[in-house]
Amino acid sequence: MKYGNLVLEEKEFVLLKRLVNVSGFYTDNTYKNSIAKLTEELKSAVVYGEEEMPKDVIRFNSMVTIQAVNGWSKQFQLVIPSQGDFKNSKISILTPMGAAVIGYAKGDDIVWEFRNGEQTLKVADVKQQHSTINSDILL
Fold first, then answer.
1. pLDDT at 24 (0 to 100)
2. Residues 6+ apart with CB under 8 A from 16
3. What is the C-alpha R_g of the chain?
């Protein structure tokens, strides 16, 4: 990991903790396991203010390109759950893929459990989309 731990912007960290706390009702084991692993990673996350955030870290609304060791590649935008739209490559933070990538940086390798088993992914590219996240979204 480039920065040693997950790197999150402070308002996004607050929102992510809220989302994780209300997502404990999944019955699908893959989703439950992803949320549990993300929850554990959040305990050691490094939190920065907006102006200090590295530009190569995956955040809410980032455009992300990942590559798997088995050869496939995928580009998507990481979004809040209400904006998730798989057909339009908008992946919710609460999906296994979303939970896997948040807080990682370009060049990082990620090992995560998906429905079809454990996968190793490489973050090939991260582009920031400038839009504001409302951290009070769940209130």
1. 65
2. 8, 38, 42, 93, 102
3. 14
